């Protein structure tokens, strides 16, 4: 309520970064407010961008959205899965990692770029959510995309529906992972051994035209 009242009182703009830090809000709400301050002037009242509308100008293999999944550490110490979702065909490419750092994200992008090249594709566009809990990953992603000529776009904080395809794919993969674990009577410690078979149909079979 305090956050909404602040926005109404200022009409959504007028704060500096120092003033935002002085407002008694949670770090997540401060991040949202800072994001709105940075983008309000460029798009005053209209911001309907979604990955569903942005990717249409790209060909097969050129535009990907991505999102993270986190589980308990498995028997090898792997805790995160970075799922990339191809916009035209619906194919999924997953990279597993032990930590969620900027260096790990850059390695995942390199592997995605190499994966695209094996199919004769050129990576031109990446779309992701704005994650207030991991701003270092967003900065590393933007820097990597600038170096390799890839357009990087993000949805506003807490508006995950703008990256709905990746979100729905993550939900599907999580359901299938837990289903396979339950079927094999395995604990969550072995989630990677269930996640890879769950993702296999999506990584090999296009389901979109």
What can you tell me about this protein's structure?
By secondary structure, the protein is of the alpha/beta class. It is 47% helix and 14% strand. The protein is built from eight helices and five strands; from the N terminus they run ααααβββαβαβαα. It has helices at residues 2-10, 17-22, 27-40, 51-54, 102-118, 135-148, 164-183, 191-204; strands at residues 63-70, 80-86, 92-97, 125-128, 151-154. It has a five-stranded mixed beta sheet, sandwiched between helices. Strand 4 (125-128), helix 6 (135-148) and strand 5 form a beta-alpha-beta unit. The N and C termini lie far apart (44 Å). Mean pLDDT is 76; it is low at 10-15 and 40-51.
């Amino acid at each position: 309520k305090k956050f909404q009242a602040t926005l109404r009182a200022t009409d959504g703009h007028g704060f500096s970064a120092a003033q935002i830090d002085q407002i008694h809000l949670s770090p997540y709400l401060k991040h949202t407010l800072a994001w709105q301050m940075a983008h309000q002037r460029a798009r005053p009242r209209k911001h309907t961008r979604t990955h569903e509308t942005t990717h249409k100008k790209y060909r097969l293999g050129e535009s990907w959205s991505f999102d993270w999944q986190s589980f308990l550490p498995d028997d090898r110490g792997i805790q995160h899965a970075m799922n990339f979702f191809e916009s035209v065909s619906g194919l999924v490419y997953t990279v597993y990692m032990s930590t969620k750092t900027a260096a790990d994200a850059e390695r995942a992008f390199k592997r995605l770029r190499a994966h695209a090249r094996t199919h004769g594709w050129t990576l031109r566009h990446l779309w992701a959510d704005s994650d207030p809990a991991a701003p270092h990953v967003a900065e590393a992603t933007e820097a990597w995309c600038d170096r390799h000529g890839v357009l990087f776009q993000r949805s506003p904080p807490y508006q995950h529906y703008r990256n709905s395809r990746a979100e729905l794919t993550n939900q599907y993969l999580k359901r299938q992972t837990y289903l396979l674990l339950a079927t094999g009577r395995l604990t969550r410690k072995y989630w990677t051994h269930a996640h890879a078979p769950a993702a296999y149909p999506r990584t090999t079979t296009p389901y979109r035209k």
